[in-house]
Write a structure and sequence with these properties.
The complex is a heterodimer of chains A (116) and B (110).
Chain A lengths: L4 E3 L2 E4 L5 E6 L6 E8 L3 E9 L2 E4 L8 E7 L2 E6 L8 E8 L10 E2 L3 E5 L1
Chain B lengths: L3 E3 L4 E4 L4 E7 L6 E7 L6 E7 L2 E5 L2 E6 L4 E6 L8 E8 L6 E2 L3 E6 L1
Parallel strand pairs in B: 2-11
Antiparallel strand pairs in B: 1-3, 3-8, 4-5, 4-9, 6-7, 7-8, 9-10, 9-11
Classes of the chains: A mainly beta (116), B mainly beta (110).
Chain lengths: 116, 110
């Protein structure tokens, strides 16, 4: 079975440009998470969706960041305008919504973003 | 102070050794405790999950949670070179919003 698919795997762009990261969750999963990983701050949750609805975006660093989930099989994370300090690895993860038991989050292999 | 503290290492041990990885936390509301393994240039993968206090064993891996001390551990027995990776602890109060430790980079030397 296909796991979480992220694109692009690598992105290098200049400061001020718009960046769009894409994610396809595992089929049937109804929760989707966006994380950012840096050496300094580790892995941080940015935003998550349940049934395509944003539930908690308190981790989104600034208004320059926005995320959408137009349908159950696709999500985007957009940075506009981008800044060098946004350079990081961005991960998308998906899971089933937990009920009586925990549901593990399955991660994609990330997008390595460099802003020059 | 961070909510979750984890020694980033690096930690280097010989093959076959017992490895102990630890995290401390400050938020007493955490109920779900996890360990993730992350290979280089890959996403984290769930290794162990524990709800509330206690121990859990899965093959060579044992996870322990001590809520009274706000301390969790992961033990790896008979360590193998394939165990070389970064290990991240994670915890949450509501099962969805995970807070991760910094990760410990582990190398098992043949």
């Amino acid at each position: 079975d296909a796991g979480v698919i992220q694109s692009p795997r690598h992105e290098v762009t200049e400061m001020g440009q718009e960046v769009t990261l894409r994610c396809k969750p595992i089929s049937g999963h109804n929760s989707l998470f966006w994380y950012r990983q840096t050496m300094m701050r580790g892995l941080e949750l940015l935003i998550y969706f349940n049934n395509n609805v944003p539930i908690d975006d308190s981790g989104m660093p600034e208004d320059r960041f926005s995320a959408k989930m137009p349908n159950a099989s696709f999500s985007t994370l957009k940075i506009q305008p981008s800044e060098p300090r946004d350079s990081a690895v961005y991960f998308c993860a998906s899971s089933l919504i937990p009920g009586d038991s925990n549901q593990p989050q399955h991660f994609g292999d990330g997008t390595r973003l460099s802003i020059l | 102070q961070k909510e979750v503290e984890q020694d980033p290492g690096p930690l280097s041990v010989p093959e076959g050794a017992i490895v102990s990885l630890n995290c401390t936390y400050s938020n007493s509301a955490f109920q779900y405790f996890m360990w993730y393994r992350q290979y280089s240039r890959k996403g984290p993968e769930l290794l162990m999950y524990t709800y509330s206090s206690g121990n859990k064993e899965d093959g060579r891996f044992t996870a322990q949670v001590d809520k009274s001390s706000k301390y969790i551990s992961l033990f790896i027995r008979d360590s193998q070179p394939s165990d070389s990776a970064t290990y991240l602890c994670a915890m949450s109060w509501g099962a969805q919003k995970l807070v991760f430790g910094q990760g410990t980079r582990l190398t098992i030397n043949p």
